[in-house]
Amino acid sequence: MSAINPKPMFDAKGWRLTEQERDLTTLARDFGETTLASRAHRWDQQATFPLENYHDMHGNGLLGIGVPKEHGGLGADYRAYMLTAAEMGRFCGATALTWNMHVCSTLWTGPLSDDLDLEPDALADHQNRRSEHFRRIVEDGAIYSQPFSEGGAAAAGAAPWSTTATPTDGGWIINGKKIFASLSGFADYYGILCGEIQESGKYSRRDTIYIAVPAKAEGVKVVGEWDPLGMRGTVSRTLIFEDVFVPDSAALMPHGLYFQAASRWPHMFMTLSPTYMGICQAAYDFTIAYLRGEIEGLPPVKRRQFPTKQLAVADMNVKLESAKALWFQAISEACPDPTKEQLMRAYTAQHVVMETAASLCALAIRTCGGQSMLKSLPLERLYRDSRCGSLMLPWTAEICLDRLGKLALYETGESDDD
Ligand SMILES: Cc1cc2nc3c(=O)[nH]c(=O)nc-3n(C[C@H](O)[C@H](O)[C@H](O)COP(=O)(O)OP(=O)(O)OC[C@H]3O[C@@H](n4cnc5c(N)ncnc54)[C@H](O)[C@@H]3O)c2cc1C
Predict the structure, then answer these.
(1) Does residue 34 surpass a pLDDT of 90?
(2) Residues 205 and 269 in one domain
(3) Which among 149, 208, 355 is the best mutation to test ligand 1's pocket, defined by most ligand atoms within 8 Å of the CB?
């Protein structure tokens, strides 16, 4: 099915985009319209990974969007990436979501790391290592994933990782398990977070290390089924690591840097939201086109003349524009060491986008009616994909509310025990 609304989601004039943001969002929208939209049904129906899209993204540069220009990438900063990813989310949720895992491995090791503090020697090592990761992506078309989740409290930031990296001559030995590992069996490198075991034999969250494990390394296994409700093309099966040796050069971030990033650059966890921002826009666009009788392949029956439809669309518009405005503000103010208000706005924006995606899709189906949820149309896929947004750790919709409530009612250091 071809695209329904070719207009930019955040038009350059209205939202005062930079030239780079305008160019990148145009590239993603064109790619989405010409390529992603017509393939999306296949990945969803078969629950297969959109590898073909990744080959195309190597060709059009999007695979290296987060790689700095001096390393041959498109050099997007955080906001430029987020806006571009939202455009991708309009056309294929599974591609946008998995692409996010890949892009974060470059954004976090690149521009985001540059905002943090590292000793000169550690910085020089980091720069050497990341240049090899960047090279693989730009030259070889290598795909990186981000399997962090383990099924325990670690992915919510509430406990150390169960997956461990034991230092050994020239590298580490990795042991552990990652669940919901999107791109399993398709990524070339699994960018995992694990606890680096210290001389004492123990480790804490501060000892988190971010390592790119080659998919072909001995001891790496992909197990289990993948037959979920939505985001079926993400192929998020389980990964097992059994005594996997990785060399020092596999580190995506040196010891301590991930912990620093998670504490000082919290907007890094909003990067799962653009996919769902795109889904919000797609559900709205579909509804408009459907009620105007303009869906390709359907009889040109108009339903826009009914006041109930007009009211429902007005309601959808209010929800969509509110989510977009809040989200745009939150991604615009992302920075190291945000104020408490900026952090709270980021939690609010994440919560609103994830929940709005699900409610807009539900409203779209109710408004358009029975024929709109046939599998030949994209709306029912949007509806199922949208349901996954609120579940994405570490900033699930529930966790955002939990933190917002505490931050609103307590200042730093306050407790009720005095
Ligand atoms: C389509 C899809 C793709 C995914 N891809 C990836 C991926 O590539 N990489 C990856 O790492 N993960 C991925 N995930 C996993 C995702 O981020 C979550 O880890 C997963 O959904 C957790 O499910 P759970 O039931 O085990 O969560 P649980 O840990 O059982 O938590 C259930 C809920 O309880 C709440 N909760 C949990 N801990 C706390 C806490 N400490 N405080 C307050 N509330 C809490 C949260 O709201 C959470 O949603 C993906 C998930 C989906 C659905």
Answers:
(1) yes
(2) no
(3) 149
